[in-house]
Amino acid sequence: MNKIRKGDKVVVTTGRDKGRQGTVIRVQADDKLLVENVNMVKKHQKPNPQANQAGGILQREAPIAVSNVALLNPATGKADRVGVKVLADGRKVRFFKSNGEVVDA
Questions:
Q1: What is the pLDDT of residue 12?
Q2: How far apart are CA 92 and CA 89, in angstroms?
Q3: What is the pTM of this model?
């Protein structure tokens, strides 16, 4: 079970964008993820008239390692570690390690 999923609010813990918050756009198989407006890079795009695509310099998100982000705890407003536990009814859920609150309802 992934501790960070698409749609989660995360905080960047290390690197150039340390402290910035964003929503996870996509989780890739190689333990990387795309976070909205974090780790922005410039891509020089050639025009492609067949695909009706204009050229120029585009700004887009680059992948960031899962180890460099932490889930945002809405109760405290800070980054928090996440664990996985099995409930009495057999469901696996994520929970915040600091206060034990369940992330998944």
A1: 97
A2: 9
A3: 0.85
Angle at 20 between CA 38 and CA 34, to 5 degrees: 30
Maximum Cα interatomic distance, the chain, rounded to a whole number of Å = 58
Radius of gyration, CA atoms only, the chain: 17
Residue-wise DSSP of 25-82: EEE-TTSEEEETTSSEEEEEE--BGGGTB--EEEEEE--EEGGGEEEEETTTTEEE-E
Identify the pLDDT of residue 25.
96
Stretch 77-100: mean pLDDT: 93
Distance, in Å, from the CA atom of 54 to the CA atom of 82, rounded to the nearest integer, reads 42
Q: Spell out the domains of the chain, with CATH numbers in brackets.
A: 9-45+56-96 (2.30.30.30)
